[in-house]
Structures are given as structure tokens and as C-alpha cells.
Amino acid sequence: MWEHSFRDKAYETRLFRSRAITLAVFILALTSVLIWRLGYLQITLHEKYKDLSENNRIQLRPVAPNRGLIYDRNGVLLAENVPSYSLVLVPERVNDMEQTIRFLDDLVGISERDREQFDKRKTLRRRPFEPVVLRHRLSEDEIAKVMVNRYYLPGVDVEAQLVRHYPLGESFAHVLGYVGRINQKEQSQLDADPENKRRYSATQYMGKLGVELRYEDDLHGEVGYQKVETNARGRIIQVLEQQNPVPGSDITLHLDSRLQQLAQKEMKGMRGALVAIEVATGGILSLYSNPSFDPNLFVTGISHKDYSSLRDNPDLPLFDRTIRGQYPPASTLKPFIGLATLDAGTTNWSESINDQGWFQLDNDERLYRDWKRTGHGVVNMERAVMESCDTYFYEMAVRAGIDSISPFLAQFGFGRDMTLDVINALPGLLPDRDWKKKRKGAFWYAGDTVNLGIGQGYMLVTPLQLATATAVLANHGQWKVPRLIYAHNDQIDDIQHGEIPDIELKNARDWDRMSSAMAKVIADPHGTAHRMASKMLYPMASKTGTAQVVGIKQDEEYDSESLRERLRDHALFIAFAPVDKPEIAIAVVIENGESAGRTAGPIAQSIINEYLGGAEG
User: Fold this and answer.
1) Region label for 388, one of left (φ > 0), alpha (ψ between -120 and 50) or beta (otherwise)
2) Which CATH superfamily is domain 60-253 in?
3) Is 90 exceeded by the pLDDT of residue 233?
4) pLDDT of residue 300
5) pLDDT band at residue 384, thresholds of 50, 70 and 90?
6) Which residue in the list 171, 292, 331, 542 is annotated as catalytic?
7) Is 331 a catalytic residue?
8) Residue ranges of the domains in the chain?
């Protein structure tokens, strides 16, 4: 019994030794595996994990270039970049997004529009830890409130950035357009092109309309890069290397801010458009549509309230009448019809007709009335232009025929977009036999030619086309393609007029004689715009026009008092000056303005006086 109470030390020693050996072998095996794995990772896969580690610590971040500036012909700044402070959030660092936004709403105010835009920007974000703008344009007081409470707001910061600004606002809204945030559709288009994807990798804005869109490639610039060291949370510790971005080109336009602002002032309370062109170069001096809007509202995102106000305005401030408004040219077409009939040889300057106040086609009972019910009496080409005699041009148009008139008018740019860099311009409408057959399914009748003779009927023109044709007429048929651009980075652009042929009349003297006839529109007591003579500082060749908005039956008289304002005739006016050596050509359209001599004409005269007066100074 006592023998079994003592332990067998030899047995325990053997058991311990066997267990120790087993454990040692197991540990040795594990150590061997660990050493092998360590060696495999450190030696065999050294380069792979070295690259992964470096990529996690060192990152290349794109740097946005400064957008190029836009100047007018006199060096006045039209589009600039101004510092703006935005409230930004890094979603990965925000613990409770809803609570944080509620706190910021109480602190500085966050609108529903801000929240909607924030959610959209998050979905478009290109990389993690990239700040997302919650609210633009913080005031100094709001910046202070955010910074004081920054300790309680992880992931919230105030970021400075350059934002596009248009100092002259409404004066240049339609022609310059504006920049806006890149939307989802535009981002998809950029991503589809590797080169554009790289160029816009740091850019949040791009040109949307006008010059900003047309010259986007020049204004944008080239992206730069920073090689930065970051911590585990993606925060930048230091900048290791930097390749500076290349700023966009500054561009200078032919536009004259004096004329543009004067046009805005003169057209206050009216609906219409004004286009002025430098005859010698084709440079567009003024391209103004009224009413206009403030393009700065669109840069960082326009509110629903502001956009609805613009969209629902019956005066259509968002509609660019200079290039999208299409109107019957009315009597402003008569100088061109006159040249067409002269060149066709169907009349001459000395031939006269007796205007009794109406015109009638053979075998047709309809009477085509003159605007002057009693008629103009005996008139020739010069007097017909000066007094705007409808009957004369009815007859001359029918003599020449549509097959002669339409191709002749096309040489002046009617029915085509002839500009170099004005985007989205409509071509107007220059009808002919083929057009009517195709679009109306009908033949061209002599009555259609009668209407075309006084700029009515099917024909439509934009104010830009009218100004272009007037500039070509003033230049005696020599083409200078209308353009906005003047220079890139102070380097003047040398632009040729391409393959557009100049207009050569069979009798070159017809240019001067037509200019002389147009000069009498103001200078002669019987001219349709003679009331402007008292304020004429420079000899001016012009033509008035009145385009019907509603049709008047054969035996009815036009009664402006009985018509609602928006159904009254449009007033049109074209001019160039000085007559002997033209420098500026202009076209003005005032919707429902009725008498061009009272509405459109004085506006054109003010622009011409300002331009030529400034040129002399």
C-alpha cells in the first residue's frame, strides 16, 4: 500500500522529456514556417509590398489650373476668378452625417438646395477623402462660427477656392455665357476620353454657354500634380514634389464694354436685340439681348427660386435674341432686294413707277397694299429706299423673280450661319422654290415673291445676320467673317475669311448709290427716319423696317391702339457710318416696338455716336 503512494520519478522524467521534445519540434516547425514566410515576404515579395506601401503613403494628387481671364477690346475685365470660401465635409471623417448637417444648419444655415447639391457631389466624387462642398460663399461671420466650433465638427472645414465672377453681370450674360459645375452627363463624357479625364481630374467647373463654352479648351489650362505623403486616414502630411499647373489662356474679344453697357441702358424696359460689327475686321463690337440675367447666379448653382423666376418670366430673359431670335426682315431687306434687281438688269436707277398705294399681279384680284394708303406717287429706286415704298419693291421683286433674288441674298449670309465663333446661332430662313416644295408641299407663287420683296412672308433673319449683311453692304461686298475673338494672351489672332467669296456687282457704282439712298433715310425730310436728323453727329446710311406680328386682312387698317402690346409690329433698324468710309454696322430689333424711327433707330444712333466719338477721342 505504501509502495504505490510514492511517484515514479523516472516515469515522470520520461514523460516530461517526450512532451518537451514534441513541443520543441512543434515550435521549431512553426518557427521554420514563420521564418520561411518572413523570408518569402521580405525577399521574394519585397518589391511588390514595397510598391504597395509607397502607394499607400505617397499619392499623386491633381492640382486644378487657374482659368484664363476674358477682356474686352479696351482691356476691361469681363470674366475673372475671385477667392471664395466654401464649407466642405470629408464624409469618411464625419461620425454622424445627419447630426453634423443639423448642427451646421443651426450655425450658418443650410438650405434644401445646398443639401441636394451636396448629395449629388458626393456621388460624383472621384476619390476617397476628397472634400465635398456643402455651401458656397461663406461670409466672414460664418467662417468665424465654423472655425470656433471646429473641435466639435470632425470632417468639417472651410476651404478657399477661386470662383468665376462676371463684373459686368447682365451686360454680357448671353454673349459670355457662364461656367457651372460639371454635371453627371458631362462627367461621363469626360471619363470616356482619357485625355479629357486627365485634364479635368482636378476641375469642378466648365463653360456652359457662350464664349465660356466656345473657348473652353483655351480657357481651361493644363492640370498639375502634387506628390504628397499621407497618414493612414488620408490626410496630407507633407508635399514631396509638385508639378505646377499651366493656367488657361487669357483671351481678348472684339466686344466693347462701353457699347454693351450703353445698349443695356438704351433698351431698358424693352424686349429686343442689338448687334454691332466693325466693318474693317468683322469684329463683333456688341452682341446684346434684352432683357438679360445675372450669370453669377449660375456659377456655384442657382437656387430653384431664382431659376423659376427667370424661366417663368414672360419676357424670356434666358432667350438670346441676337442669335436665336428669328424675325421677318421687313423693309430692312429692301436695299438688298434693290441691289438684286439692279444686278439682274430688271431695273435701273433712273426708271420710275407710279405708286397709287397698291400693287396687283396680272390675273389676280388681290391688292397688295403700300404702308402709305395714298401711295408715294412717282418713285425711282433712290426714293423707294428713302421713303420705303412697298409698291415699288413689290413690282421689282416680281420682275426679278425668286430664282434670281434668293441666290443673290444668300451671298450676304442670309439663310446661313456665317460667324466664326458664335455658337448656337440659328441660320434664319431664306426661302426658294425647292424649300417650299419640300417643306410646304406646294409650288412657289408670284404672290410669295411679292411678300419677299418687302421682307415679309416666309423669310426669317436673326439680328446677327442682319448686322452681318449690313457690314458686307457697307464694305462694298467684301466679306469679313464676324468673330468675337481678338487675341490669345495678347497675341492677335490673324483670321482669314476662308472660302467665302466677295460679292461682285455687275456695276460696282451700285454700292455707292445704294449707300447714298440709305443716307437719305435720315438726311432727307421725306426719309422714314428723318426725325433722327437732329441728333445725327455722323453721316449715317440706314433703313427702317416694321415686321407684322399678326396678319392684317386686305381691307383692314393696322390699328396699334386696338392691339395688345405683344401683338404690335416689331421695329427693325439697320445702319452703317460714316457713309463715305464705314467703320461700324449695326442692326437693332425691338419686339412690338412699332415705329423704328422712334424706338430701334435712336438706340442704333446712340451706339454709333458713342463708338465713333470714342474712336475720335
Assistant:
1) left
2) Penicillin-binding protein 2a (Domain 2) (3.90.1310.10)
3) no
4) 83
5) very high
6) 331
7) yes
8) 3-44, 60-253, 257-309+321-616
